[in-house]
Amino acid sequence: MKRVLLAVWMAIALGAPAFAQSTGTSEKATNRDLYPDKEQSGSTVSTTVVAPHAPPPTAAIEAPPASPGPTAVWTPGYWRWDPEQQSYTWVSGQYAEPPHALTAWVPGHWQQEPRGWIWVEGHWN
């Protein structure tokens, strides 16, 4: 039994994804064009998105559709930087289930830094 458990542990340890962090304006997508779905969690890859100029000053006007359930939370849309097109595109909001009761969605935002505009990903708080 110990050999089986050791073999399973080794397979998991050797097959686990590597942790990585990358930066730059011409990075390739690692998960949904640099932005993981808001409903996904547990990614082991951290990507810093840097845009050379500010996003559009206003968000697209969205009227959330009917909620799919009593605990679903509307997570608003955001401007996504497309490094290949060198422009922003709008990503529509969506409903998501909070990971715990009394958890609130903190929307992502663009933050200006010396190297450009940095995307700070939304998260549950």
Tell me what you see in this structure.
- This protein is mostly beta strands and 125 residues long.
- The protein has one domain (2-124).
- It has one helix spanning 2-15, and strands spanning 20-22, 45-47, 50-51, 73-75, 78-82, 87-91, 94-96, 105-106, 109-113, 116-120, 123-124.
- The protein has a three-stranded antiparallel beta sheet, with no helix packed on it. A two-stranded parallel ribbon has the order 1-2.
- Strand 5 (78-82) and strand 6 (87-91) form a beta hairpin.
- It is globular, with a radius of gyration of 18 Å.
- The relative contact order is 0.19.
Q: Biggest sheet, open or closed, and with what strands and sense?
A: 3 strands, antiparallel
Radius of gyration based on Cα positions: 18 Å
- The rough form would be described as globular
Distance between the amino and carboxyl termini: 42 Å
What is the element string, with H for helices and E for strands? HEEEEEEEEEEE
| Uncertain regions spanning at least 5 consecutive residues | 1-41
